[in-house]
Amino acid sequence: MDAIRDRSAASRSACIQPTIHRVVAPLVKAGGAAAGDVVMRCRAPIALTLAAGLYAPSSYAQTQDEQALALLRASSAQSAIITFCGKHFAIDGTTALRISQTARDVATKVLGPDRANAAFKDELARRYAEVKEVGEQQWCADQRDELSSGEVRIFRD
User: How many CA atoms lie within 13 A of 131 on its CB side?
Assistant: First the structure.
């Protein structure tokens, strides 16, 4: 959990899609069928996006715990987008929710339910404090800019 808090503001706001691609692949391979089933339950663009990441090599070696924590950061960002950004931009809440839940499901397979829930609770509190510090509209605009080039469109405008 301390690993989550030690991230710089710049790295915390890094684009979510590459994180999901880089992190899900080794987790699914290591987690076997159960972790793979989580990804396969997703539909349409989410399943394709995550599946494409299954064969992408990691840019650097990470432990499974670090990868799971990165997924929880991605999940908290999607949760914050759902909570705050719909007031300022048109968003695809269904897609954001699917990304968030899939990331949490895979992280839970690695960390276990108790540890994953505690880490997500801490991360979500940190994320919401970040949104408050930056300001809702600015934080959402930053996320919109960062996610504008990804295959999956969370922001519609």
Answer: 21
Question: What is the rounded CA–CA span in Å between residue 10 and residue 8?
Answer: 5
What pLDDT digit, counting tens, does each position of 51-79 carry?
334 334 444 457 999 999 999 999 999 99
CA-wise closest residue to 104 among 143, 141, 78 = 78
Backbone angles phi, psi at 54, to 5 degrees: -60, -30
Q: What local confidence, expressed as pLDDT, does residue 137 receive? A: 96
Q: Which amino acid is at 124?
A: L
Is residue 75 packed enough to be buried (19+ CB in 10 Å), middle (13-18) or exposed (0-12)?
A: buried
Higher-confidence residue: 34 or 93?
A: 93
Write down the pTM of the prediction.
0.64
Q: Which helix (H) or strand (E) holds 19?
A: helix 16-40
Residues contacting residue 132 through CB under 8 Å, at least 6 positions apart: none
What does the alpha-carbon distance between residue 153 and residue 45 come to, in Å, rounded to a whole number?
9
Angle (nearest 5°) at CA 152 between 146 and 156: 75
